[in-house]
Design goal:
The protein is mainly beta and 390 residues long. 12% of the residues lie in helices and 53% in strands. The chain is globular. The protein starts with a helix and ends with a strand.
Length: 390
């Protein structure tokens, strides 16, 4: 064997393992990328898919509860009242039940956590999709409550001429965070919201007389705001309107709903809140619904008198606008689209404005949720009905 042939043989010995080494790691990577692309294509097709009927797949009997409220949570739905809160699975099975006694229960939820507080009382219950996380009693009457996606709660408390905000862990243990507001200076705390991670807090204050109201949206942060003694990151003043509803849409968007406008704020910079858009509200608005990433408005059109549905994204940009049929019984902004129930039937509308389903249901319950992309849950107080879109 000459020197050239020996060199080629030596190179072949090194090349074979290198090829095997490259394929060993490149093949799994290629398969992962292929799965991601296939999943995206499937999601895209599913989001555009239309359905022609809603078949009743099953029905389940549940115990009636007078004066109860309902909400979608943890893959099923919650029923809460003055006596307690319980979670039902989509199959109608009671997963857990927490008993309490409250006069004015208020439910708040975010992520995998929720809380019920007794307004004007002193009791708070915190829960997750797995059941009770903790509970606590305050030393002053509760004015309002907010919960984060990690189970932290913030409660505003009535201390006479002063309002206090205290923070608690999901277990019910009080944190060493307290904020105090003189009502003569700041006003009355009308609403509050916590960020998903619990580091941001937004409060809507109202002050003045019934003839000259003034509102203020104040942004606080317990992370980047440590250097500020008040933890105040910024505030926005509004004259002549109330702003009684605050919600986080994701980690960096805050929505304030007033009686004449919807204010969309950006927290892309935590220490510098910015007003992105102010959306004027129609004079005769019927429904204002906030979803995980969208805002829905339902109102009679000034020109035709028919009900109009406007849906905006988290930046305050119009996603679609269309007229609807019949009087609204329920409006929900689900992941799969807008679920609209009227006395004319049920519609599922994508966030591009396309009708994915339009038809009727075999039962008459008005409480509606979606479980997944094509399962509808309907509740009439004593039964859960599960429909499959086809």
């Amino acid at each position: 064997m000459n020197d050239q042939e020996a060199k080629k043989e030596e190179e072949a010995l090194y090349e074979t393992p290198n090829r095997w080494f490259r394929w060993k790691y490149m093949l799994p990577l290629a398969l992962i990328l292929l799965a991601i692309v296939a999943g995206f294509i499937y999601w895209l097709q599913l989001s555009r898919q239309g359905f022609t009927r809603a078949d009743l797949a099953a029905s389940y009997e549940v115990q009636e509860s007078s004066g109860a409220g309902y909400a979608s949570f943890g893959g099923g739905f919650l029923r809460y009242s003055a006596d307690g809160v319980c979670l039902f699975t989509p199959e109608g099975r009671e997963k857990w039940n927490i008993s309490y006694s409250m006069s004015q229960p208020k439910l708040v939820m975010q992520g995998d956590y929720g809380a019920v507080a007794d307004l004007s009382g002193r009791k708070v219950i915190v829960f997750s999709k797995n059941g009770l996380s903790g509970s606590y009693n305050t030393v002053m009457d509760i004015q309002n409550i907010a919960v984060s996606g990690k189970g932290l709660t913030a409660v505003s408390l009535d201390d006479g001429l002063t309002s206090r905000v205290q923070m608690y862990e999901s277990s019910g243990k009080r944190l060493d965070i307290e904020m105090s507001f003189e009502m003569s200076l700041s006003g009355y705390p009308l609403a509050l919201a916590l960020s998903p991670d619990g580091t941001g807090l937004v409060i809507s204050f109202v002050s003045g007389s019934t003839t000259a109201l003034s509102s203020q949206i104040a942004f606080y942060n317990f992370n980047v705001g440590k250097s500020d003694p008040d933890r105040l990151m910024g505030f926005f003043r509004y004259d002549g309107q109330l702003l009684p509803q605050l919600e986080y849409l994701g980690a960096d968007r805050v929505i304030a709903v007033g009686d004449s406008s919807i204010e969309v704020f950006s927290l892309a910079q935590e220490n510098k809140p910015e007003l992105l858009k102010s959306l004027p509200l129609p004079a005769q608005i019927s429904v204002c619904q906030l979803g995980a990433k969208h805002i829905g408005l339902l109102y009679p059109s000034p020109s035709t008198g028919k009900m109009t549905l406007d849906v905006y994204d988290a930046d305050g940009e119009l996603s679609f606008s269309r007229e609807t049929n019949g009087n609204c019984r329920s409006l929900r902004l689900e992941e799969a689209g807008v679920l609209f129930l009227s006395d004319s039937g049920l519609s599922l509308i994508s966030y591009t404005g396309k009708i994915r389903y339009s038809g009727s249901l075999s039962r008459t319950g008005q409480v509606m949720f979606m479980s997944g992309s094509r399962t509808i849950l309907q509740f009439d107080g004593s039964h859960i009905y599960r429909y499959r879109l086809k």
